[in-house]
Design goal:
The chain is α+β, with helices and mostly antiparallel strands and about 600 residues long. Helices cover about 25% and strands about 30% of the residues. The structure holds one RNA strand of 77 nucleotides.
RNA sequence: CGGGGCGUAGCGCAGUCUGGUAGCGCAUCUGCUUUGGGAGCAGAGGGUCGCCAGUUCGAAUCUGGCCGCCCCGACCA
């Protein structure tokens, strides 16, 4: 039995000044964590205990579908060079050299490393499918660690990898993970949503994220309250209401209009008395192309890097989504054009850039200018755009007739209030999208043969022919489960965790340890609760009752039993932290009652999980 | 990487502008009193003022450099 008086639970009355989000403040105040450096945290007793409970749930559910491995975190360069990611993953990877000067890195993820196993060991279709997972530390040199445990440089991840003979097999492995993840997050008491996610520039056909709504989150989700459609903003699409086009003037061909001082979209819209939706804006980028590895992994270091000019054109009231854009281009990185680059690719000044008269590359990321037109410009007519000339715009501009592009695709972010893109039987959903912030706690991913092919994994099928297995990868951020749970359940006094992941399920508070009778009763009750199978913390500190109540409210334990004056009447107080609800219970019934409540909670989660 | 802020005792902060040898609250330790919502009284301990260099008789304070941490941004010209 754990006695608070003997433990190191350094609670703080005040939050550290540099903590912003609730979970960060409370994790520190409750004595779960202490900061070591930017994005680096020490996990102390209560924190480690809670993480271990989360890990136990993850492990239990994962063991139903896969096998646990444990790979090194210190990794040689070679597998990464084969896949092309030694260069493709830029500065996010921690790199180091050993005493012989050989390149190593700290594990960022483990597709390559798992696949070295797969290719050297898997030979026959009879051995597939395989699902291998590990629960292990990951290292990422984030540009900006932030928000306590939400974005850190070292964290624990459950990562799994599936190997199947074909797409149908991959579908099965993927669906097994989908179900396992739903069970895990449900058992951890999270109110989560599953959203369509960006599958990235590296290919892959499908991916889903498991999200917990929270203002502390870094992702934006578009969702439809009517049909349940939900997608990361990096992926979401929407239906746009039809627009009234401008009436053509003159001969209907592009016409130069003097628009002095109208560099910004609102000025242009006001000048022409039009909605910004009838304006075409230009956002110019430089895109980084990194050489990928050859198909057989022959090119060990990938090709050279090069920057290419990209002009994007979209509606004046729309925003570029750089994830979509990078995906469409196959670019590793994007940055906005500098002044000198603008003058190299365009004749006109910023604020008056337009698509008419540009020399457009036929292939993306060639030697000239890649032009990407947003899909929402398709079918539009008589729009306004910059004339590539100071203080001049063009009107009567019709996409396709008056200018061309390298590619036309969806590169914009959807906005709240736009129409839901889903529908059934040809009938569109009538819902309007809402956008909310969320924490990503899990991500599952169909990779296809991206790694198995580049690394040369092959097995023989039933007919003795060599085939490249297809792969999926699946991740869960362990600390993020804890963080998200705290974000969704806290108040000014502290937080409460679901019994399944709380460091203790019940704290027995002896209100006055100077009273021998109370102390004895508390000890006996704690022992009774423990033998009922509950994780009990006995608060036997020689502190005033108020101090112990405050601490108990702070540290995330869902139930508290106060052993106080009413013991003489054979009663104790049961406090349910989530509802701040207090009830008197007979001393000889309280252990059974708490046990029943906890079991009901766990059972409910288990049922929902199925 | 760009911008902003901060760095003084375990935590939260004042002192810096105007240079004179460091303080407050909480926490900690001792004693007494107290014991149902972060107690009271009395006493005590604890700080290379982020680091380095400079200016000065004298630097937490002024100057320069560096380091660290936090926040915003790294998308609409």
């Amino acid at each position: 039995m754990y006695r608070w008086s003997k433990l190191f639970i350094p609670t703080l009355r005040e939050a550290p000044a540099d903590a912003e989000v609730a979970s960060h403040k409370l994790l520190v105040r409750a004595g779960y964590i202490r900061q070591l450096g930017a994005g680096l945290y020490n996990y102390i007793f209560l924190g480690q205990r809670s993480l271990n409970k989360i890990i136990a749930i993850v492990r239990e559910e994962m063991n139903k579908i896969g096998q646990e491995f444990f790979l090194p975190a210190l990794l040689p360069k070679e597998p990464w060079a084969e896949s092309g990611r030694w260069t493709a993953i830029g500065e996010s990877m921690f790199r180091l050299k050993d005493r012989k000067g050989a390149d190593l890195c700290l594990g960022f993820t483990h597709e390559e490393i798992m696949t070295t196993m797969a290719r050297s060991e898997l030979r026959s279709y009879k051995q597939l499918p395989q699902i291998w997972y590990q629960i292990q530390t990951k290292f990422r040199d984030e540009p900006r660690p932030k928000s306590g445990l939400l974005r850190v440089r070292q964290f624990i991840m459950k990562d799994s990898y599936s190997y199947d003979m074909d797409e149908a097999g991959l579908d099965k492995s993927y669906n097994l993970h989908d179900a396992a993840y739903r069970a895990i997050f449900t058992r951890c008491g999270l109110k989560f949503v599953v959203v369509e996610a960006d599958s990235g520039a590296m290919g892959g056909s499908q991916s889903q994220e498991f999200m917990v709504y929270s203002d502390a989150g870094e992702d934006l989700i578009a969702s439809c309250p009517v049909c349940g459609y939900a997608a990361n903003l990096e992926k979401a699409t929407s239906l746009l209401p039809p627009l009234e086009e401008m009436v053509a003037t003159g001969d209907g061909k592009p016409e130069l209009v003097h628009t002095p001082g109208c560099a910004a979209i609102p000025d242009v819209a006001a000048f022409f008395r039009i909605s910004p939706a009838c304006d075409i804006k230009c956002v110019a980028y430089m895109a980084l192309k990194r050489g990928a590895a050859g198909k057989d992994g022959a090119k060990k270091d990938g090709g050279p890097e090069s920057w290419h000019g990209v002009a994007t054109f979209l509606r004046g009231d729309h925003q570029v989504n750089e994830t979509k854009l990078a995906g469409a281009l196959g670019a590793a990185e994007l940055r906005t054009m500098q002044a000198e680059e603008l003058s190299r690719y365009f004749n006109g000044p910023a604020g008056y850039l337009g698509p008419v008269g540009l020399k457009v590359d036929a292939q993306p990321l060639g030697d000239g200018l890649t032009v990407v037109a947003d899909k929402a410009l398709e079918g539009r007519r008589n729009m306004v755009c910059g004339a590539n000339k100071l203080d001049y715009h063009l009107r009567n501009v019709t996409p396709g007739r008056d200018f061309g592009w390298t590619l036309m695709t969806d590169i914009r972010s959807v906005n709240e209030g736009e129409g839901c893109p889903s529908g059934q039987d040809g009938k569109p959903c009538e819902g309007r999208l809402v956008v909310g912030k969320a924490i990503e706690t899990g991500h599952i991913f169909k990779l296809g043969d991206r790694y198995t092919r580049s690394m040369g994994a092959r097995v023989l099928d039933e007919n003795g022919r060599e085939v490249t297995p297809v792969m999926g990868c699946y991740g869960i951020g362990i600390e993020r489960i804890l963080t998200a749970a705290i974000e969704q359940s806290n108040d000014a006094n502290g937080f409460w965790l679901p019994a399944s992941i709380a460091p203790f399920t019940v704290v027995v508070t002896i209100t006055n340890v100077a009273d021998a009778a109370l102390r004895e009763t508390g000890e006996k009750l704690a022992a009774e609760l423990e033998s009922a199978g509950l994780d009990v913390l006995l608060d036997d500190r020689d502190e005033r009752a108020g101090v112990k109540f405050k601490d108990a409210d702070l540290v995330g334990i869902p139930y508290r039993i106060n052993v106080g004056k009413k013991v003489t009447e054979g009663k104790v107080e049961l406090v349910t932290r989530a509802r701040a609800y207090s009830e008197d219970v007979a001393l000889d019934e309280v252990a059974a009652l708490v046990k029943r409540r906890v079991d009901e909670e766990l059972l409910l989660e288990a049922v929902v999980a199925k």
